[in-house]
Amino acid sequence: MTRVKIEDKELEVDLTEEEVKYINKNLKSNPSSTELGMFDVMWSEHCSYKSSRPKLKLFEDAEKNYDYVLAGPGQDAGVIDIGDGYALAFRIESHNHPSAIEPYHGAATGIGGIIRDILCMGVRPIALLDPLRFGTLKDNPHSQWLFKYVVKGIADYGNCTGIPTIGGEVEFDESFENNCLVNVACIGLGTIEDFKHAPSRAYNPGDYVILMGGSTGRDGIHGVTFASRTLTEQSEEDRPAVQIGDPFTKKLIIEATLEAIKTGYVRGLKDLGGGGLSCALSELTGDGGTGARIDMNKIFIREPGMIPFEIMLSESQERMAFVVNPEGLDEVLSIFQKFEMVHAVIGRIDDSKVLKVYDGDNLVVELPAKALSESPVEEREEKKPSYLDNLIKEKTPELTIPLEEVIYKLTGSENICSKEWIYRQYDHEVGVRSIVKCGDGDAGVLRIIDTNKFIAASVGANSKHCYLDPFNGAKANLVEVCGNVIAQGAKPLAMVNCCNFGNPEKPESYWYFSQSVKGMAEFCKKLRIPVVGGNVSFYNEDEVTKTAIKPTPTIMIVGLIEGREKIITLPFKNAGNDILLIGQTFPELGGSEYHSVIHNIDGGISPKVKDETIEARWKMFRELYENDLVKANHDVNKGGFVITIAEMCFKNELGADLDLSVLDLSQISNDELLFSESAGRFIIETNEDDYDKIMSIANKYKVSVYKIGKVSQNPFIIINGLEKETIDLDVQKMKKLHTSTIPDYMEI
Amino acid sequence: MTIKVAVIQFPGSNCDLDTIHVLNNVMNLEANLIWHNDFKGDKYDVAVLPGGFSFGDYLRSGIIAAHSPALDEAREMLRDDKPIIGICNGFQILTEAQLLPGALLQNDSLKFICKWIKIKVENNSTAFTNKMENGFIIDIPIAHGEGRYFTDKAEELEENDQIVFRYVDEKGNPTIDGNPNGSLDNIAGVCDLEQKCLGLMPHPERASEQILSPYHTDHGRLFFESMIDFINRRS
Amino acid sequence: MGLKDFIVEIVLQNKEKAKDPVGATIQRDLIAKKGYANISNVRSGQYLRISVEANDKEEAKQNVVDMANDLRIFNPVTQNLTILNVTVKS
Hints:
The complex is a heterotrimer of chains A (748), B (235) and C (90). Chain B is α/β, with parallel strands linked by helices.
């Protein structure tokens, strides 16, 4: 907080003293209170990325290095060319802080925001995916309350706007109890022409600026600075900063915007999110190399008596700014009239490179168009937390219960159990594109109507692994989420991320962020996955309990499947088929579900990633797929590979006869073998006649492939070949445990 | 002759484009998407009220759209013996406009449900079911928060053959297990006395292509094939 | 003085300064379009009628307010609670 004397008043701003000095010296001496307020919001962590920018530079320049990337980081969404004239846009961002105090509207307006980001790339939003984090549900009414209303908020908003929620991910861990994470991702589809029509820049002097959508009220003023501050008890007073979502208006905005773009007269498009009109106008003109003259009195105001500062910084939802060719002004306005959307021509673009805002005859803002987006970078200190070395040394306690009991417990654990309770509430079919249904695959699969192309998309993070080793944890998460789309038969095309961390002013929190970004950047470069967008959410910690959340670099991977017959699903298909385990299992129980559920410990050695090994497996899969050798595929994730096999048995109520003596058991204990979450492994179902062919492909790429058993008609999983015991699991009992956990907590 | 199909777009409709896709690309018809204020019934042979959240479902699902001039046009069409189908939100609109009996209340689970379920054909003589066998079991998805059918005239509906579909379980029986939302007597769809106006909560347009069905069925086509047959026979 | 039965009627609404899309849509797309020009504003809410045993009206009211706060019957972030009426159950 800095106190600034302005227009004879003392104002409190979040800008640092250095920033205020910098503004006075380089951008505007004696700024007005409105101008200073604009800097205050635009230079907040949330809008300016001032702490994260130095590290985000580690990601390659996607637009330069990948010919199919049409828009990379820095734009509202990443956009790639998927062939046949189609462009795919996608982005992921956070809405953590609002959701932590008002889960329903916080989550709903999060969905609203991400839809706008995709829409302003000129394409139709066609899918939503939501990675979520909460405290554990058991005996915890607060976590249950957050969970219930976040899911309902997403459902009500997504369902009403007609955008299917095709996937998601949820993790329950104490560190999220008072700071839940609500990350929201959206995918949009359009022609490359549509995308090129509507840049988020204003290039042409003389074009009109139109504000369309909801009216401008006092809501969310300072909402962004609010999100950039750690949650304190004071947030209880900050409450009006959480907005009310209006999915009906959003639906009309989507249709009106897409219809307006089709006219060809829209030459610039920007949504109003954090920073409101200030942010939208400065980005349109600053990045377009133009300026603008805006008449504030034209803006449709919801509350009387709003002052310029409030109008420029209002974050009222459901608004879009259009830059329109004068020749088509009437045509565009008639579309807005048809949809009965509130709209107003609020000004014109000029070549002044200055943003001027008038209140009647009064000039209230006059700033270089680029000034607001040129915040100084904050260099932050980083330091490895001192507790980490001891945590990693933590040993797995002696197991005192039978392995069978462990597996049953894991099957019903909060992080492994079925998430059907969630996805039943989401309309995941609207749009008639959803091919692989929720629960039938690791990723959502959408068809591109009129082509033989399919998109697979998956989201995820692994907070527990990142807590122990953010560099490898972030990599292993990439391996896992890419594994999700690969398991469906897709080739990963691009990644977007959302980095959720603690307070960056604390060196330990910043170290986690820095290490995670380093891991992701290195892996993506090596495996040739362009990073086309990102979002950073810092300050995810609770001042009262002094705990930071576990570091959570969430990602979304989008992949492409060329042909309907190349889509692979998760459930086992036929008794008698082989079950193959791809990839080696290491003693890596750190951060595993086994450690947390059975032994209640966080520590240990977590999975490491060897980029070359992963690359070889992916190449092998491509060749297996080309030869149609895989009948079912599921990547190994939480709980280890027996859980993976069980999940493949559920749908068709099949079983598995396993003999693990084919694995090298000399260097690994039973619990390590069964429950380690070593990265990049898969369980696949194959025809026994194809075994030799598969092995010769595996050998070619030097991939470890183990034939560990067969699919059986009898719904039991029998595990032989371990030293001491035979494991005999009832699939029906497992399925019941798997599906009843969340309903048992939530349906009271 | 070319059958002229109108899909009426209300503010907040969201299955409109899906319905157009099925009618045009799957059924090879020439359906038009018409904004509700611009809809004129005399230009069309049949009208489809698609699913979605007209006017956000604010106040009560379907009530605000029921006051649209499009519903006056629809009434006129029925008088001219032209068929009308309301799917999901379209069904809610038709009941609120009192073109169909009964009401759709909040699901008994109090939650939105998106799921493939089964319905049984109870009346195959309507304009949209004449290509189905009575007793035939249809694979079809639902996606609604307010789909619990209620009427205080169940017996009357039964006598007049106005109950067209019932929710059934895996074995084809109208049991509690097969009832996803608590609908009275497992009713999933009803028609008017003349059997030309049909409303149902499940989505035929999502069940008209094998690629979309977990059972690789395309039972939804039967609705549109019946409709085509009805119009062709009538003209 | 013994316990008596009271009826406490409450309404939960979005805060006055917050948007109310439900009320706004009912007013704009239904009431105004059908010509009721004299009706300019509609706010929506949720009505609850609660039976409670207490010594007097004031206590009955306080019991309900405390319960509503405790159980998050409304979320003070976006909503407020109004007591419409407290009456003795007849």
